[in-house]
Amino acid sequence: MRIEILDGHRNIGGNKIRVVDSENDGFLLDFGLNFSRWGEFFEEFLNPRTGRILHDLLKLKMIPRLNIYRDDLFDGKFEDPVNHAFLFLSHAHADHTGMVGLIDEKIPLLMTGETFAVMRASVYTSNSNVLTQLGGKKRRKASDKDLENGIREDLTVSPGNSKSAERLTRRVSFPKEVELNDDSTVVDMNSLWKNELFVEPVYHSVIGAAGLAARVDDLWLAYTGDFRTGPETAEEERYWLDTLGEKRLALSLRTSRFFENLKDKRPLVLIVEGTRVTREENVENTEKDVFENAMRVFRGTKNLILVDFPIRHLERLFTFLKVCMENDRRLVLMPKDYAYLLEMERVEPLWKLTDEERSFVRVYHPGKVTYINLEKDALLRAKEEGILLSPEEINLHPEKHTMVAGYWDFPHILDLDERVLNGAVYIHSTSEAYTEEQEIDARRFMNWLRYFNIVPFGIREVNGNIVFTKEFHASGHVSPQGLEKILNELNPDYIVPVHTLNPGWFVERWDERVLLENVIVL
């Protein structure tokens, strides 16, 4: 067996891993966007050229030179004899799936139905991007007419609305049956790999995260993706059940089930994340803490409340929905956010809202003239259901509403009365700023809050510095203490750290069992 860490080796994010057996059959583990590497060359208004995107990324060494790419984007070949059976996508965060649109559509994408739903909602509520493209129409080589119009002959161009354009039809596979209503072709997971293979959900900050285990030659190989742990005592489990409900408790226990299923797999090679082993954190919040802290803020104000969290983190949405229900407030979503809910419950009925939950959900009617695909469908669905809310209705009863509005949504609050915004509460329930660009965004965002005299929680400015207090955020990654406990109990034969800045942390504890090379042969 050969393990190739193509990206994500000594950095956080951008995971791209290949596993190959002795017969040159293999599979890929994630194909994410490496944000730090990307930021060295690109930014919001400087991007690779769509018509030469694979050429550009290959030349900048942002993607590996493997025969895994769409033939409508790249017609070259490399000296690479590996037959790729599938690409496993551990969860729907861009640092793990952000370049999946480049992958040959004939290579099946293996993921949970929840991950597919989140990815599809993300793609179809935003502008088209080749990097994340799941379906649609293939690009084509420049035609004679294109050449006459000055387009260079080595570029690929969009087919536009041509009815004769070839469709980009993805092959997808799931660990359990999923009903789809798009152009994807569903492939039985049991046919993907010649040996034993299983996918088990784990607990992370996006619903649908999962780990994988496969028998490769004479070894078991497991990949955790990103994960965190849930309640550790019977008392904690009882609290989750009584306060957050049965579905949320079951979600929080997913990680323990994944590792339990690995205990009898020997010999075992574990590819494991180590995001937090270099972070010094004084706060170890869980979703229970987020719920309790939010309850205190809600009970302390009669003003409008604005909450900010990544909508892909649907568990956090359910937390704030529960808080709203306890405080007789309506949770007001943007149309794109409602699209996530609708898509998730379509693919995974487990997350379908109950009638009571649905009675507390509203959809804001923003001042937009253009809506994208599922975003438009969600808006029209909300109108049909009678839950589409105008700014005037919020102005009349701000104390009855909680708006989900983050940095990019704040222009829409300009339709609300200043008397409503004056003294409103904003809760920052997402991660802190990690890059210089994010710091700039946070400072700009504070200008909005100051201008309207909105009271912030979870973020504040101290002597010109932005401070994230984190009481409304729970990390999606396992703590160092939790990770050490899991690995000691599992006792894998080999440990391959990825998604970490400090692989030495693993060596200090498990010495020669830790494999740090980019290419590992066993």
Automatic annotation (TrEMBL):
Keywords: Hydrolase. InterPro entries: RibonucZ/Hydroxyglut_hydro (IPR036866). It comes from Thermotoga petrophila (strain ATCC BAA-488 / DSM 13995 / JCM 10881 / RKU-1). It comes from the Bacteria. The keyword Hydrolase applies. One of its GO terms (molecular function) is hydrolase activity. SUPFAM superfamilies: Metallo-hydrolase/oxidoreductase. This is Hydrolase of the metallo-beta-lactamase superfamily-like protein.
